[in-house]
Write a structure and sequence with these properties.
By secondary structure, the protein is an alpha+beta fold. Helix content is 38%, strand content 12%. 5% of the residues are buried.
């Protein structure tokens, strides 16, 4: 019986915490920082929780 494979795109974008929450990096942290305030870029540096609607699908793609 073959093993199930983890979805590669999902494992690069999401991670599961010990308590089972799904976390992801926030957008707008790649480039063009000159026009963004320091306060904004600092707050975007923190990981955010995935939306409740996506959690079930993300966990399935991660094989959890």
């Amino acid at each position: 019986m073959p093993k199930n494979k983890t979805h590669s795109g999902t494992k690069k974008r999401f991670k599961l915490t010990g308590s089972g929450r799904v976390r992801h990096e926030q957008a707008n942290r790649g480039h063009l920082f000159e026009k963004k305030s320091s306060k904004r870029t600092r707050s975007l540096a923190l990981d955010a929780d995935a939306s409740k609607a996506d959690v079930k699908r993300v966990k399935r793609l991660l094989g959890k």
